[in-house]
Amino acid sequence: MPVHNSDIKKILKDMADLLDIKGANEFRVRAYRNAARTLGQLSKNVEEMVREGEDLTRLEGIGEDLAGKIEEIVNTGTLEQLEELKRELNPEMVRMLEVASLGPRRVKKLYDALGINNLKDLKEAAQKKKIREIEGFGKKTEEKILTELQEMGEEKRTLLKEAEEVAEAFYSYLQKSEGIGQIEVAGSYRRRKETVGDLDILVSLAGKDNNRVMEHFVGYEDITEIISKGETKSSVRLKSGIQVDLRAVEKESFGAALLYFTGSKAHNIEVRKLALERGYKISEYGVFEGETQVAGETEEGVYQKLDMPWIPPQLRENQGEIKAARENSLPSLITWKDIQGDLHTHSTRTDGRNTIKEMVEAARKQGYSYMAVTEHSKRVRMVNGLDEKGLLEQIEEIKELNSTLEGFRVLAGIEVDILYDGSLDLEGEVLEKCDLVVASVHYNRNMSREAMTNRILKAVENPHVNIIAHPTGREINKRRGYPVDLEKVMTEAKGAGVFMELNGYPSRLDLKDTHCRMAKDLGVKISLGSDAHSTGGLTNMKYGIDQARRGWLEREDVLNTLSWKELKKILKKK
Ligand SMILES: [Zn+2]
Ligand SMILES: [Zn+2]
Asked: Please, what is the average pLDDT of the chain?
């Protein structure tokens, strides 16, 4: 792997920061800082310089010692001394540096004054207004720290797809342990939230040897830190930064524990209330009548004891699911099998990595009977978005391809940009020739709520538009959506025969669950699109389905559960 100047700079800066926290000699700290700065300004590639045997000490602020360290970084990708420092200091304390208004000096001060060495304690101290009393901090800084912590908290959560990769690997590792019965990843992961904090893994014991199970758990190769190890609970941190908690319970408690650790908290509180009303006590160990356990081995059993059917984890947010369950009116949630085709994909023609043919092959393997190709339009210059001529060519190309396919239909579509004034990026007479027009906002996002709403409304009213894609433009962990009055947009969409997209791209998942439910209530069908940029990307549909289920969507609420024949009729109506 190539080592960039910026990588080396980062390691040197981290060295300076950690030495500073540790209270090392001021000159030593400064030497690292100066070296980092020199590298930041350098136009030459340091890796090449090292490979060609150039003398690094000729660079400003680099002595023999630092030159040696830089060579070590180039050769190994890391610096042993930095790793040592990280081991020595609490890694949580190092994370405190990520709080924007805290430098190493302040981190040290916080530690010296209040013993704070992790983000949790930092937050607590700020909430209790203790930080303002430390010299050099004050009320303003304290408030700033709190806001920054909040923002970090939002960011720290891992995308469901990334968490899934980690969780599945860990899951199969655990399956190899003797002494484990059932395994479930609980928490927000099981509720399939768009982002996940810690992973909570729950296992039932097949024997009595807890210790062996815990030994196996902490022996996983991807672990960078064992946070705690006990008889029934252990916590570790993985290379990816994700914390994983393992809880081991007896077989007869597994269902109750699974329900408890799956959450949400709000859902559990309601469940507990129902139990109390019936004279039961409920905990993660089971449902009890006096001292006798009356349920808890399975989740179904617990719900049943409370006169309810089992509730799918995606619904457990205390948004009416308990009432619905008790009235036996839970939605029969959509599944991936219900999906007949994908309505948002890209190919090599713009920024995709696979040809239309390859995408079609993958879509057929997925069991679909149609797939829309929806390339970007010309406004998206960076990826050579299609102009009118390009789109016409592609429509022809797709026509030809369709004539060779049996039992599968490629829809000639486009993801046309909604321009600043609400007009579309391509001429109507060309759009008219498409099977499907998806419209979306990619640029000029800084608008008032009213202006953005009007801009999108104009697209809704455009006779060529079928679907509004990723309607809020949010990108998880990157940027919030633009402000837009979705209720107004959806109400208009309903009248105009336009559909709203739930984009399955793992960092978009736009619409959100609550928006999906709003659409359902307003009677606007949702279009599920993977926004795949490769054959593998078609499986983004899975996350879209999870989000749709969180939004209570059923088969009939989703546009692409229709066959192409039915879909064609609906699109024509417009
Ligand atoms: Zn897009
Ligand atoms: Zn797209």
From this structure: 93
